[in-house]
Design brief:
Elements: E1 7-11, H1 12-15, E2 21-24, E3 30-39, E4 44-49, E5 59-60, E6 71-76, E7 84-95, E8 105-108, E9 120-122, E10 127-135, E11 143-147, H2 148-161, E12 171-175, H3 178-183, E13 193-198, H4 203-207, E14 214-218, E15 221-222, H5 226-234, E16 241-248, E17 251-258
Parallel strand pairs: 5-10
Antiparallel strand pairs: 1-4, 2-3, 3-4, 6-7, 6-9, 7-8, 8-11, 9-10, 10-11, 12-13, 13-14, 14-15, 14-16, 16-17
Length: 259
Amino acid sequence: IISDDGYIVTNNHVVEGVQNVRVTLSDGSELQAKVVGTDPKTDLALIKVQSSKPLPAARMGNSDQLQVGDWVMAIGNPFGLEATVTVGVLSGKGRVIGAGPYDDFLQTDASINPGNSGGPLFNTQGEIVGINTAIIPNGQGIGFSIPVNLTKEIVEQLKSQGKVVRGFLGVGIQPLSPKLKSALKVPQEVRGALVSSLVETGPAGKAGVKVQDIITSVNGKAIRSDRELLAEVARIPVGQTANLSVWRQGTEKNLKVQV
């Protein structure tokens, strides 16, 4: 529960295709819920319940401030065992596990099992820092949570629009591996996303981006990988002009693109 007026964050896979959603509180009372919006690409969903009194809401923290080794605590109903608490540490950040195009998971060794989905990952200040979402089957001490900072962005759009609208450049991109750098005669210190294909009539094509360009920054923020570019462009409101820096045949070029 993220607000006392009844907004609740969970996973998309918890409510996907469900006709009737009920929320059971810790005092045993049941409330009818409606699905406000879902985002399958990040596996997040926002639901809402009506209550005659304000509900106890958890505070959202700042997942960017987390460091590997920080203590965290997961709460959920693994295998139907109500209000189970597990404790561990943050094992890693920015994990890509093939769940979707915007993977950016927190990894923890606090036990996460079926039934923990959609539950909170807390820091030692009692703030939500992640939404528990995924496990590796047969793995031990390897669980994944959606960072709360990403969750905040998604929740605001779900609350206002019922869906998530993401920015689009119109480029096909791929990782810039050391072998590719060597083949394209790119200095090893250059980092970014390699443009492998282009929608000619798309925003980037109109702005002058070319195949084999390396996009190195968006609006002044350094891009270190293809996934960082995906995430950064997705955050830009549709219609807004963005500043791209691209590396092209030994020179840095600055382009303006309307997302």
